[in-house]
């Protein structure tokens, strides 16, 4: 089973935040239009789904070992210690991914859904027609010469 189809505890929040079901969000994340926040959120969600699956597996294994109908001679303190260590590691990973995903969603810029897109008006172009160029007239002979000062 792919992580895209595994459930996670944050699926509803992600769907509400990004406005689409998880499957569609994964499809969107593969496109160039996908935001970095969506890609990061889905990456964290994938890790979270795996960690939560590990927690469930260890929990179910411990429940089977502690089944009241099971023969007590089959119990192993070493196996239960190992399961406790695995459970602790899986819960730590799950908690870390949940915190990271919560932080990402908290610090994300707000979505702009429902707001009208900016309207671009056609700007009229102003054109000016200049009179035809006339040949340059020569400068007067004393043009640019400084005047002598009078005493």
List the helices and strands and how they pair.
Layout: H1 11-18, H2 22-29, H3 36-65, H4 77-107
Helix pairs in contact: 3-4
Give a short synopsis of this structure.
The chain is mostly helical and 151 residues long.
Percent of sequence in beta strands: under 5%
Count of β-strands: 0
Q: Could you spell the SSE succession in H and E letters? A: HHHH
Give the rounded overall mean pLDDT: 84
How many DSSP H or I helices? Answer: 4
Percentage of residues in helical conformation: 40-55%
Are there runs of 5+ residues with pLDDT below 50, and where? 113-117
User: What's the story with the biggest beta sheet?
Assistant: none
Determine the N-to-C terminus distance.
Answer: 105 Å
Can you walk through the features of this model?
With 151 residues, the protein is an all-alpha fold. It contains 4 helices and no strands. The protein has helices at 11-18, 22-29, 36-65, 77-107. It is rod-shaped. The termini are far apart. 13% of the residues are buried. Mean pLDDT is 84; it is low at 113-117.
Overview features:
single chain; rod-shaped; 151 residues; mainly alpha
């Amino acid at each position: 089973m792919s992580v895209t189809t595994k459930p996670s505890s944050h699926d509803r929040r992600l769907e509400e935040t990004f406005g689409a079901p998880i499957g569609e969000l994964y499809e969107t994340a593969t496109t160039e239009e996908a935001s970095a926040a969506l890609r990061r959120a889905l990456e964290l969600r994938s890790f979270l789904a795996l960690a939560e699956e590990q927690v469930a597996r260890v929990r179910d294994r411990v429940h089977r070992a502690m089944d009241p109908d099971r023969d007590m001679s089959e119990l192993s303190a070493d196996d239960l210690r190992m399961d406790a260590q695995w459970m602790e590691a899986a819960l730590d990973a799950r908690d870390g991914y949940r915190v990271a995903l919560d932080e990402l969603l908290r610090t994300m810029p707000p979505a702009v859904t429902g707001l009208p897109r900016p309207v671009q008006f056609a700007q009229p172009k102003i054109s000016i027609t200049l009179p035809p160029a006339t040949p340059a007239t020569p400068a007067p002979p004393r043009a640019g010469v400084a005047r002598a000062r009078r005493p």
